[in-house]
Amino acid sequence: MSFSNLLSEVTYRDQRPSPSTTATTHLIDTRSQISRARSYASTAATSVSISGDISSQLHGGYSHPLARAWQAERQLTKSMLIYPLFITDNPDDEETIPSLPGQKRWGVNKLVPLLQPLIAKGLKSVILFGVPLAGDAKDALGTAADDPKGPVISAIRLLRKSFPRLFISADVCLCEYTSHGHCGILHDDGTLNNQLSVDRISDVAMAYAEAGAHCVAPSDMNDGRIRAIKLKLIEAGLAHRVVLMSYAAKFSGCLYGPFRDAAGSSPSFGDRRCYQLPPGGRGLARRAIQRDISEGADIIMVKPATQFLDIISDAKEIGKDLPIAAYHVSGEYAMIHAAAAAGVFDLKTMAFEATEGILRAGASIVVSYFTPQFLEWLDT
């Protein structure tokens, strides 16, 4: 119905026969009729478009790019990002990892030139993974994991000296250093010896802490390793200045393939399903998170990220007073690259969408191979 028709209808309904009506009264009455007509038109339009439910009108709240950003409970910032680095025992190494686009294995002599421009762009944190390549570097006990001249401890000392403001995390596991590729010391039947594994893992964590790591992050999933590390940090007088970040909910699955290529950590037999969580084990994940919080974890991590957003949400619920981290793992990163290369979607757009989903689920820290790109993208 047009505005003129509405005006005519209202005028007809509201006419009052009065031969003595003055010009002033007529003018006032006409204005009143126009006002009522506009109100009637507005009400009619509203009734048609939203059936009178004013709360359904949402578009105005995110019509502007800044207003859209305000809708997020957490917005991605540079301080949320941790960049994973693979450090080898060849000091001059710079080797491309074919299954992990854009990522390389680095020797310690290459780290400063690599990180200088990234830190200038706002890089705040890295997490180090040792990759021993020497023929005699691996044995059944993973003895090279805490070698004072090994890649991780050498890198920690170098980075502390070169970049005093950089936050350095060290992944703590034995899989890169064991001849069998499992995340601990084994019984004769090939199963994990949890007691010996925890003792060894906690010693490695202590070596990294004493070398200067700001954060130690055990990823082995052996029962009780958080408590053991925390107790040793307390005994050594380091607990007040070293963050203990637990891979509390680390699930088994096929998304770690590129990482294992990069770190040379594939098991020589069997798999890790008996100590990494089953993908359907939400209850187990909740129990593991609760356990690690009670044992002294300062940060809880969920890994992988995008397939376990419900677990990130659970972690935030259970550990409401703790920071929650999520590892956007190698397989997730490689899938986005492969799909973008095939023209399925834009790489930058999907990288942001995946990461924003992780933040929305409850994480405030993201371990991401996209970190170098995000440092640039967040400035544009």
TrEMBL record:
Family annotation (SMART domains): ALAD
GO cellular component, one term: cytosol
UniProt keyword annotation of Nucleus present: no
Protein's name in the database: Delta-aminolevulinic acid dehydratase
Region (Disordered): 1-24
Gene Ontology terms: biological process: heme biosynthetic process
Cofactor annotation: Zn(2+)
The gene coding this protein: HEM2
Keywords: Heme biosynthesis, Lyase, Metal-binding, Porphyrin biosynthesis, Zinc
Matches recorded under SUPFAM superfamilies: Aldolase (SSF51569)
